[in-house]
Design goal:
- Among the domains are: 72 residues, Roll (Ubiquitin-like (UB roll)); 131 residues, Rossmann fold, CATH 3.40.50.
- The N and C termini lie far apart (202 Å).
- A 9-stranded mixed sheet has the order 6-5-4-7-8-9-10-11-12.
- It is built from 11 helices and 12 strands.
Length: 312
């Protein structure tokens, strides 16, 4: 009868199997496991960090979040500086105070007057300075045709203006004003602009640009002119210095100016003792003499007629 633990042959087989297992284990342990490349390991770590929890724990995400909060907070701080006196005061103490004014493009605009326009905002926080409101204040000055206002940190306001250009003096109701090409009344005239041509009468400011542009092509007349008078809003008279007054027609006044210049070049009509040249009629020229000259000529004609009468 065989024992329960097996016979000797079975024991021998068990010993051999155990020896083979140990030998195989030693073979496996003798093999070296090569490490993964660095970029692969980094890719694995990056993929493992793409979870919400991993992103939140990452240092880059924390730095980005802190920067975002700072930017948003600073933007809100600036946007609401004009609504919070404490914020405005704080920024002023930090050196962000609008205390410098730079103006570009001004030739006639008085910088002191411009500074007065902006007085309510200058000296306050640059963050609370309202650019649009300042621009509207600048445009209220009649010299300013267009303007831009901008902030230059930390403490400067820059105003760029395009001024209206005066083209003539307009005399109306006992006052003389400067006017621009579109007839806009800029200001009362001063000594600086007395060399500009002068237009007189109601509505002359609105019609001056066209007339001055045309008459400038007739220098023989324009160089002698002292003023251009608008009559009934329909036509012009030309006043000449030390010369006659020329009554231009309502229609074809450009042609009449050409004819008048030819008469001056050929006959020196404007240098004679004439007080008025009426060109309103299309078929004739009516000339009015100086009263003294007219009396002398009348007397001479009468004497001539008497002499001729006695001879007959």
């Amino acid at each position: 009868m065989q024992p329960l633990g097996g016979n000797d042959r079975h024991k021998e087989m068990d010993v051999n199997l155990l020896a083979d297992a140990k030998q195989g284990s030693s073979v496996l342990n003798s093999r070296k496991i090569l490490p993964l490349p660095r970029f692969v390991r980094r890719a694995i770590r990056f993929a493992q960090g793409l979870t919400p929890a991993g992103l939140i724990r990452s240092r880059g995400f924390q730095v980005f979040g802190l920067a975002l909060v700072s930017v948003v907070g600073f933007g809100y701080f600036i946007q609401n500086a004009d609504k919070n006196s404490l914020v405005a005061t704080a920024t002023s103490y930090m050196g962000f105070e609008a205390n410098k004014l730079v103006v570009n493009g001004n030739n006639n605009l008085d910088i002191n007057i411009l500074q007065a326009h902006l007085a309510t905002q200058l000296g306050n926080s640059l963050f609370s300075f309202k650019v649009d409101a300042a621009r509207d204040e600048v445009l209220n000055d009649p010299w300013v045709q267009s303007a831009t206002v901008r902030k230059v940190y930390p403490d400067t306001i820059v105003v760029d203006v395009v001024e209206r250009k005066p083209v003539a003096l307009w005399q109306s109701k006992g006052k003389v004003h400067l006017i621009s090409r579109d007839g806009f009344v800029i200001s009362q005239a001063g000594p600086k602009h007395m060399n500009l041509p002068q237009v007189v009468g109601e509505g002359a400011n609105l019609a001056a640009a066209e007339f001055l542009s045309v008459i400038s092509r007739f220098p023989v007349i324009s160089e002698k002119a002292s003023a251009y008078v608008r009559v009934a809003g329909r036509r012009w008279n030309v006043r000449l210095s030390n010369g006659p007054q020329v009554l231009l027609p309502e229609a074809n006044w450009q042609v009449a100016l050409g004819e008048l210049q030819d008469l001056q070049l050929k006959k020196e009509l404007l240098d004679r003792d004439v007080v008025q040249i009426d060109m309103r009629l299309t078929d004739r020229l009516v000339i009015k003499l100086d009263p003294d000259t007219a009396e002398i000529r009348k007397t001479a004609i009468q004497k001539l007629l008497k002499r001729d009468w006695h001879k007959t």
